[in-house]
Design goal:
Layout: E1 3-4, E2 11-12, E3 22-31, E4 49-56, E5 67-68, E6 80-82, E7 96-101, E8 111-118, H1 121-124, E9 131-140, E10 146-151, E11 161-170, E12 173-183, H2 188-192
Parallel strand pairs: 1-10
Antiparallel strand pairs: 2-12, 3-7, 3-9, 4-5, 4-8, 6-7, 8-11, 9-10, 11-12
Length: 196
């Protein structure tokens, strides 16, 4: 049974599931439907949201090799794989997915921060206020059952990136923390600087 989480409500992924070795993290969003305008009005540009994982050691990002995103779909350890870039957010269900093999993740990594930024947000004049139904969920990679889900409900007008959540090790357990913190970082580079 899936648990619907509130912002900041941490949950253990492995306490009652010690055999958990693989999780799929699904992220989704929809573009807000624009108000109907005249027949000849230009169609608004699609909003391209990009999900990424910032892999931390002792709370720090040590280099670009520890970023998994549309330009680096697989971490060198083989423990994290981005399943591909969705350019529009169209359709039902997860828009982007990230596979995490917990048992393959080197012990030096203690935290995986899951972020989403709008590609070229500033140039395209796009922001998270133009997005609705955003969520992050964690799925058991063996049973394909949703373990927990966090639906973002805040109004994020003017915000161009989002720290969705984090998977982290604590006292031998893997936990998930839904963060839901919107930022004005214009891209992934600026987001990563928070962790250097």
């Amino acid at each position: 049974m899936s648990i619907s989480l509130q912002k900041g409500q941490k949950i253990s992924l492995t306490k009652d599931n010690s055999s958990l070795t693989k999780i799929m993290i699904g992220l989704g969003w929809d573009q807000v439907k624009p108000a109907k305008k005249g027949f000849f009005s230009a169609k608004p540009a699609d909003i391209d949201c990009d999900a990424s994982v910032i892999m931390l050691q002792n709370g720090k990002l040590l280099g670009v090799q520890d970023l998994v995103y549309f330009g680096n779909l697989r971490h060198k350890s083989g423990a994290i794989q981005h399943m591909g870039d969705n350019l529009t957010g169209a359709g039902e269900g997860d828009d982007e997915q990230i596979l995490v093999e917990l048992d393959k993740l080197p012990a030096s990594y203690d935290r995986l921060v899951l972020v989403v930024n709008i590609y070229s947000a500033v140039q395209r004049k796009q922001h998270f206020g133009m997005i609705e139904n955003a969520f992050i969920r964690v799925i058991d990679g063996k049973t394909n059952q949703e373990m927990c889900r966090y639906d973002l409900k805040e109004n994020n007008d003017g915000m161009t990136a989002m720290i969705f959540g984090e998977v982290y090790r604590h006292n031998g357990e893997w936990k998930f923390n839904p963060i839901g913190q919107a930022t004005k970082d214009p891209g992934l580079k600026e987001l990563t600087q928070r962790y250097m």
